[in-house]
Amino acid sequence: MAAVRVEEVLATAAQEQQQPRSLQVEKELELEFDLGNLLALDPNPPPAAALRGAGPRRESQLRALARDNAQLLAARLWELPAERADGAAGPLVARLPEPAFRLPREKPPPRPRPPTRWEQFARLKGIRRRKRTSLVWDEQAKEWRRRWGYRRAGGDPGRAWLAEVPAGADPEEDQLAKLRRAKRERVARNELNRLRNLARAHRSAAAAPLHPTGHQSRQELGLAARVARVSTASLGRFQPRLPKEPAEPPSRDGGKKRRFGPLLGDLAAERGRQLELLRGMSAKKPALDITRAVNKQLREEDAEAAAAKGKKRAQRGKRGRRQQQRPGKRSGGGKKGGAARRQQRPAGGGGRRKKA
Description:
Oligomer: single chain
Order of helices and strands: HEEHEEHEEHHHHHH
Number of strands: 6
Helix content: 40-55%
């Protein structure tokens, strides 16, 4: 950028003050306005001769064009209905109309939250949410009390000094002990549901499933600390480190991050890498990686052995199916087959001989 002297800037400003520009701007084609977005679209083509090249003439032409369009937009804004914001001494505020152009979002819209198990159950059963007050009138105490919890309305049935014996119950059964036992079962069931919800929430989260009672191992605590550290906008780059924690911020999955060389800086190392690459491309005999070649040969041998084993199994299966289709051969083939085999035997007797 060329240096600009202060005297030139002051001289230009003095000339502009001597020649004030008019508030009336004339255009061949009217501008399209979207006052809701404070937007003005100029369909008039700019002068091509003045915009050629890069110099002070082009800059002055662009500034003049921007000034004229801004003046037209400001004139349209003054035509809108206005009012004072904070009484008579407040600033004048104009009421903007609804925007005509829909501007694109910078980021995608947020995804809808997945329904909980209770919301799914309520939708399935047709249960509608009704807001209930937290206080109800207690007829015994003659005062407003909480619906649930400590000192709730009606009192705790397990702490009552009198319990009604239901019809058909054993008259010798202790109803107060039965109420206390039912309360302990409800408390245990609620605690079990709470632990299940915690386990489900930890499974759905990115962190490791921690034990809800606080008995975590060293690996679980390390994984939870690493996930919490990289959950910031800077991925833990500006977070304070622990005494024995490495200086490099950990990744989200705990693996090693790929390292890329700088684009500018070490030209000698870059030249060496490029020369090594060209040397390998221009070599008559390619470089042989012994480990890779051996591994490839082992994989091919394993594949061939597996294919041969599969062929043997297929042949055994075909032989068994053939024997099932023709069981006469296996059992002797009936009378006709047995007679044919007896005719083929030699006359001298190829079978067993009885002892004299």
